[in-house]
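Q: How would the structure tokens look for this protein?
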Amino acid sequence: MNADTPAGYERTVDWNGDDVLAIDQTLLPHDEVVLRLHDVEALAEAIRSLRIRGAMALGVAGGLGIALAVRRAQEQGEDVIGATQKAAATLLRTRPTAVNLARGIEHVLAALEGGADAAVEAAIMLIGTDVSTNRAIAEAGADFVSTVLFAARHSELVVLTHCNAGALASVDVGTALGIVGALHRRGRVLEAIACETRPLLQGARLTCFELARMDIPCSLVVDSAAAGLITRGDVDLVVVGADRIAANGDVANKVGTLSHALACQHAGVPFVVAAPETTIDAGCPSGADVPIEERSAEEVLEFAGARTAPGGVRARNPAFDVTPAALVTAIVTERRVIRPAAGERPGP
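A: Here is the predicted structure in token form.
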């Protein structure tokens, strides 16, 4: 741990009674620094800059952001209702694609009907709920892979994942990497392949960091290498997370996910999505209705602060893409396994 990290700190996002604590993910894997965020504006900046990121972590952070607004309003003698409404609007603007952020905010705002302390308590409870939910997803996913997808095969598997859907994308454990970890504990993982995840390298910086800590054999590949590995038979299974799942089973996840799903369909490789029930947006009919965040062009045009493209060149930088339900073998949540490619739908 870095010297700035409190002794015993383990969670990606936490609450110390007054501030939101969060690991600064932009400094990993080299430095482990914990941010102490005292107000909503600081939290919003941390989310926009990806210091806090990951669907489940954003849900918890959103809820804790409302708790921050409550406590600061109480200290300053301001109207709590007005402060929380302003906080909600500020936080919702930071990452439009990730539905869990809105879920966490809505949950704590609803609890505010019981008073300020009830709202803060509801926010704190999101932390424990996230941990238990992700543990359930991890075990359910490992069960599904072992007893359904590969029931007749007892050898170890090569599993590919994209972006980061581990403990750093949640409070603890994670979704896709939670499943990989559970399979590893059962002796079912030969190798985990992490895609680097351009342009911000969450796979290289964060997923490899987590896999190494779990002592899971890991290889890193450039994003464009994954399809070739899948189609030539070097990958047994692809497991990814999700930032929003539409009612029809379309899945929005980090840009590049769709390429892996298409390769899996061609090669007959299972493509599994791991996400909590809160990531399913029943009010979003299909992937066409998912708002796709467009991030700064500089993330693509520059590397480590240095320009890599010629002057005058523009960039498009969608942070997410949508994988059609027909390409999704299964969606594993804490409650069920949904088979979109077989016609099952997660929504009403």
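The domain at 13-129 is CATH 1.20.120.420 (Four Helix Bundle (Hemerythrin (Met), subunit A)).

The two ends are 46 Å apart (CA to CA).

Upvote if useful.
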